[in-house]
Amino acid sequence: MEMHELEIIIESDGNTIIHVKGAKGSECLDITGALEERLGTVTDRTFTADYYAQPDHVQNRETLAEKNGQGSRD
After folding, report:
1. What is the structure's pLDDT at 2?
2. Measured on CA atoms in the order 62, 52, 22, 40, is the torsion positive or negative?
3. Closest listed residue to residue 26, CA positions, set 45, 54, 6
4. Residue 62: predicted pLDDT
5. Which of 15, 62, 27 is nearest to 6 (CA)?
6. What is the residue extent of each domain of the chain?
7. CA torsion 3→7→21→28, rounded to 10°?
8. 26 near 51, Cβ under 8 Å?
9. Which DSSP category does 17 fall into?
10. CA 73/CA 15 separation, integer angstroms
11. Is 16:42 a contact under the CB 8 Å cutoff?
């Protein structure tokens, strides 16, 4: 299971900065979404190189083939 790290900085003027480490692609937006909703309006967003990297996805593929090579008969 992947671990993600959040660094949250609350500045003296009340602005909040959130850095997400260990997430690729738009996964960071999923991680911070609920927190952003509670904090208020997002005024600025800067993406790191990890945002533009492809997330690790597991892809399953199933292939069905008939042994005798004949199609079904109706």
Report:
1. 73
2. negative
3. 54
4. 62
5. 27
6. 5-52
7. 90
8. yes
9. E
10. 68
11. no
Tokens of 45: 């967003």
Tell me the pTM: 0.63
Give the helix/strand (H/E) hosting 16. Answer: strand 16-21
pLDDT means over runs of 10, the chain (74 residues): 86 92 90 92 91 69 65 54
5: number of Cβ within 10 Å = 10
Two tokens, residue 6: 């959040």
Please give the pLDDT value at position 1.
58
User: Could you report the per-residue pLDDT of 55-74, keeping only the tens digit for each?
Assistant: 665 555 666 667 775 555 55
Structure tokens at 69: 């090579």
Write out the two tokens for 54: 């492809």
Burial label for 43, CB within 10 Å (0-12, 13-18, 19+), is: exposed
Q: Which of 51, 41, 54, 42 is nearest to 20 (CA)?
A: 51
